[in-house]
Amino acid sequence: MEKQDMTDRTGIFAGDDPFVIAQRWLEEAEQSEINDPNAVALATVDATGLPNVRMVLLKEISPDSFWFYTNYNSAKGRELEQSGKAAMVLHWKSLRRQLRIRGTVTREDGPEADAYYASRSLKSRLGAWASRQSEPLESRTALMAKVAKITAQKGPNPERPPFWGGFRLSPVEIEFWADGAFRLHDRFVWRREHPENEWEIHRLNP
């Protein structure tokens, strides 16, 4: 059940669906950010509980989740599979806003992953085959030699590697943050215990 007075959420915070608001913010950032408005800091934890964070590209905001793609054998891929949970943040300096998301992750390596892989440049598709992401690398020269070998083997239309595909984050918490004067920022958080539950909305102290 929604707790927050709806009249308090106006302007950039207005709306009944957090995914729609998030998409609107991203579209605004696409008009003002110089590079990669869809860059997100993705946080995971390893088997010991030690956090890891790195930048990835958010590829889609669907009606119920946030999508990104990676090598399943990478450190982040293994950690996502092990914990089933993740967090991410998008920070847009040009808009002085940020979006924080926490929730559960599901591996998606079906038609959506095939379609996105096919949309990438040929060099990026071949690079996905060549890179043993997160593993030690002898040299840049060795990597380029592997790319050349894969290019000869796979040709101009390589299939998606079985170790590469998507993850979707189904949030249990989404926080919208906007910079305020004197560090009195505006913050609204949408929370639910499980992805199938109704949202509760709260304004937070800065």
Automatic annotation (TrEMBL):
**Chemical reaction(s) catalysed:** pyridoxine 5'-phosphate + O2 = pyridoxal 5'-phosphate + H2O2; pyridoxamine 5'-phosphate + O2 + H2O = pyridoxal 5'-phosphate + H2O2 + NH4(+)
Its annotated pathway reads:
Cofactor metabolism; pyridoxal 5'-phosphate salvage; pyridoxal 5'-phosphate from pyridoxamine 5'-phosphate: step 1/1; Cofactor metabolism; pyridoxal 5'-phosphate salvage; pyridoxal 5'-phosphate from pyridoxine 5'-phosphate: step 1/1
- What is the required cofactor set for this protein? FMN
Query: Coiled-coil annotation: which residues?
Result: none
Annotated GO MF terms: FMN binding; pyridoxamine phosphate oxidase activity
NCBIfam families named among the record's database cross-references: pdxH (TIGR00558), PRK05679.1 (NF004231)
Which segments constitute the Pyridoxamine 5'-phosphate oxidase N-terminal domain?
27-153
Q: Where does FMN bind?
A: R54, M55, V56, L57, L58, K59, Y69, T70, K76, Q98, Q133, S134, W177, R187
Which Pfam families is this protein grouped with? Answer: PNP_phzG_C (PF10590), PNPOx_N (PF01243)
**Protein function:** Catalyzes the oxidation of either pyridoxine 5'-phosphate (PNP) or pyridoxamine 5'-phosphate (PMP) into pyridoxal 5'-phosphate (PLP).
Residues annotated as domain Pyridoxine 5'-phosphate oxidase dimerisation C-terminal: 164-206
What positions does the entry give for substrate binding? K59, Y116, R120, S124, R183, L184, H185
Name of this protein: Pyridoxine/pyridoxamine 5'-phosphate oxidase
* Keyword Transferase attached: no
Q: Which GO terms describe its biological process?
A: pyridoxine biosynthetic process
What EC number(s) does its UniProt record assign? 1.4.3.5
What the record says about family reads: Belongs to the pyridoxamine 5'-phosphate oxidase family.
- The top EC class is oxidoreductase
Q: What is the lineage of its organism?
A: Bacteria, Pseudomonadati, Pseudomonadota, Alphaproteobacteria, Rhodobacterales
| Subunit composition and interactions | Homodimer.
Q: Which domain of life is it from?
A: Bacteria
- Give the keywords, sorted: Flavoprotein, FMN, Oxidoreductase, Pyridoxine biosynthesis
Give the cofactor note: Binds 1 FMN per subunit.
* Key word Nucleotide-binding present: no
